[in-house]
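For this section, I looked closely at a protein sequence along with its fold in token form, which I now present.
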Amino acid sequence: MASQDIAARTPAAWLAGSFSRQEVPAALWLGSVGLLVLGLQPILLGAMFTEGKVDFDGLALIATCEIIAIAIGSTLGNVFGIRRGVRTKATILLLVLAVLNVASALVSTLGAYLALRGIAGLVEGALVVFSIELVARSSHAQRLGGYFVMAQTLLQAVLALILALWVLPVWGSAGVFVAMAIVAAASVAVAPMAPVGYEPLPKAQNSLDGVFTARSILALLSIFVFFLFIGAIWAFLEPIGARSGIDAATVGTIVSAALVAQIIGAISSTWAADRLPYGVGIAICAVISLAAVAVILSGPSSGAFWAAALAIGFVWLFVIPCQVGMAVAADKTRATATLVPAANLLGAAIGPILGSLFIAGDDVSGVVWFALGAILVSVVLLALFMAVARRGSGEI
């Protein structure tokens, strides 16, 4: 099995430490639990809106608050280090997350929701660090990053299906929060199988390596800006579809189908990790994204809109392992690679906010133009990164 190959105890497999066959999937599971809410937000927040617990503005605030908190939590976990005592820390974080999820099912005011989901986001971000630290230590970080993306997406997809069919119709949004609490609490059983800790990564001899270099900053900016496009398009997909006469029910179906496209993207990227250079992979994603946005701007038919939305869903997760590869190339210390989730999440969270600035009245076409601009800027940043990397100059 591929996971067994990754986990093999061979000196070439890891830059620091050595991890068993049980430790690798356990570490990836912890991060997947941390990111579980991202796949459930559409049905969770939709149910809260339908139940009258939040209005549209409150819904947007809760979504943005938790995503940004996850990004902050993953950054703080990386900066302050949770590399020792992983099993104990993971157990504590999972139990705290379970309590926060149960509490979220019991409150009814926007302020309480924002406070609880903000704290939950910090905890979830810290859990992500356990996975990304493992990825950063792999000699095949792009491939292992693909497995991580695939694991989290499959978990989200399976639980979303279970919730939609059996939980939401009976218990509503409170049932979703309780289900997430059960997953977090049950995952305590996985914590003892996780790595005991992570050894420090080897220090690079090249003094130009590190996060605060031109190539590292360009890489992170390119990732962040690309996800501005993803966040803006996805948040406004329903009103964007309405511009072309596509009803809300159809857009909802498209969103569900796009989750399958995301899974296919994650699987494809994992397969291509050792076959496709990261720069080529990112460039292909940019071309597909530009084509999809062009279709959306053209006032497409229902079928064309379906194709464009599914293409964006595919790109969404195909590009992440490629971006991990770019971050690894930018910085041999791998510190930049550990910040990729934060760059992704911040871009996805801020994209809707910036995109909304381009809405004129009921016309959301400005959001699509903003998304197009974000893709182009991301490509320019990628080109600058490649130029700086070729010159071997990374100092600010």
